[in-house]
Amino acid sequence: MEGHNSEIKRINFTAFRAIDDREACINFMDGHRRVLEIFGITQITSAKADWILNPDVYVMLVTDGDTGKAVGGGRIHRANRINRLPIEDAVGYMDEKIYQMVDDYTDGGTGEVAGVWNSFEVAGLGVGSNHLSTACVAYAQFMNLKTLFGLAAPATYRNVVRGGFEPVKELGNNGKFYYPKDDMTATVMFNHDIVNLPLALEPEKTNILTMRNDIVQTKQVVSKIGTDVTLVFDLSRI
C-alpha cells in the first residue's frame, strides 16, 4: 500500500455543479461505491444516484493530479423543498424532527455536506479528509448558504467539529443514530454560521477564509509517510 501511496504527488480538489459535468459525477459515484463496498455498506442515502440531476447539488471531486483518477470527494446539497437532503432520508424515519429543522433554515440558505469519501490511496497519505471538508465548507458560501448540516461517522467527527459544526442533541440520542448499519453510528451535526465560523478551530477557520479569497490556490504538504504532496484547490466554478 505504501508503495502505491507514494506515487501520488499531486492531488486536485475541483468544485463544480453536478448537472454541468455528468462524467465527473459518474467517476465520483464509482469511487464512492467501491469504498463503501469494502466496508460492507450497500444501503446509504448519500450514495443514491438521483443527485446527478439535481440543480442544487455541487461536487468537490478529489483526483490524482497525474492520472486523473477519482480518489475522493464530497457534495454540497442546497435545501430546496423539492429534493430532500440526504440527512433527511437517512434519519427522518427514526426522528421526524429533522424535516422541520431543515425547513426552518431553508429560506435563510441551508444545505448539507454529504457523500464525503476518501480512497485508501489518499487516506494512507493522511492529507485527504480534513482538506476535503474544509474545501466543502469554503465553497458552500458561494452557493449562498449560511448554515450547513452534516452526518459524521466516528472517524470523521473530530474533523467536522474543527470546521465549526456541533452535534444536534435534540435529535436521536444526543444527535447519534445507528446508521448506515445497526452496528455503526453517525451523529447529526450543524454549523449555524458558515460565513463567520465562530465555532471553527484553527487552522481550519483560516484555511476556509483563505480559500474564499483565493479560489484557485496551491499548497505544499508532507504526507504521513514522509512524501511531499502538492494540493491544488479550484473553487472557481459555480
Describe this entry's structure for a reader:
- The chain is of the alpha+beta class and 238 residues long.
- The protein has a single domain (2-234), classed as Gcn5-related N-acetyltransferase (GNAT) (Aminopeptidase), CATH 3.40.630.30.
- Helices cover 29% and strands 28% of the residues.
- It has 8 helices and 10 strands.
- The chain has helices spanning 2-5, 22-38, 86-91, 97-106, 120-123, 129-140, 157-162, 204-213; strands at 10-17, 57-64, 70-78, 110-118, 147-152, 166-167, 176-178, 185-191, 216-222, 228-234.
- Strands 1, 2, 3, 4, 5, 6, 7, 8, 9 and 10 form a 10-stranded mixed β-sheet that branches.
- Helix 6 crosses helix 8 (204-213).
- The chain starts with a helix and ends with a strand.
List keywords for this structure.
alpha+beta; ten-stranded mixed beta sheet; Aminopeptidase; 8 helices; globular; about 30% strand; about 240 residues
